Amino acid sequence: MSALHPYMSSNSDLFQLPVTQPKLTTRIRNYLNSQHEISIKTSDHEFSYEYLGIRSDFGPPFTTIDHGDVYLFHDLKKLYGCDPYSRKDSKIIKNKILLVSRGGQCTFIEKVLHAQKAGAKAVIFLNNQHGDIRIVGTSKTPVRIPSMIISHQDTLSLLKTRKKPLATFQVHPLPPIDLDPQAVISLLYRGERIQNVVIVNV
């Protein structure tokens, strides 16, 4: 399927490559973004949930985080993460996965650097807008913690589940789809499935 990638990456509004991997994830993956996808699995005392995120192009890659502690500021100014955190906030953030909202008068990198300085071990961006986004950028200050963004729909779902105490919060990088012989890849054009696809790579 990688042979199709150069022809489809600029036409994602027309062509889509949804992928199902029942033994790996409950979510439908996007082949074009799969090398950047991260799985987030949470549970409360009643239900389990799974979200897919896209890791940032800067900073280290995500490693598996089991039973991570996650924190969300309810103060709107702190939620955007555009200002350095106080010493009191840093004590709360230290060694936690920080949830930060997209938006505000600063860049994604600035948000991550503020979280990094406060001692967070990772940042998950909450998407307050519809549509996929890839986070790119460069910084003179080394970015030492990983970050990712989840979709608007997953953001709403995660915030809803946050109303209950979470029993688990796990983060796992997903392996490349091309290495999974059981992956089922579909080709959609304008939302309609195309049957009997033959790929000729010349």
From TrEMBL:
Gene3D superfamilies: 3.50.30.30. Pfam families: PA. The keyword Cell inner membrane does not apply. Residues 80-156 form the PA domain. InterPro entries: PA_dom_sf (IPR046450), PA_domain (IPR003137). Keywords: Glycoprotein, Signal. This is PA domain-containing protein.
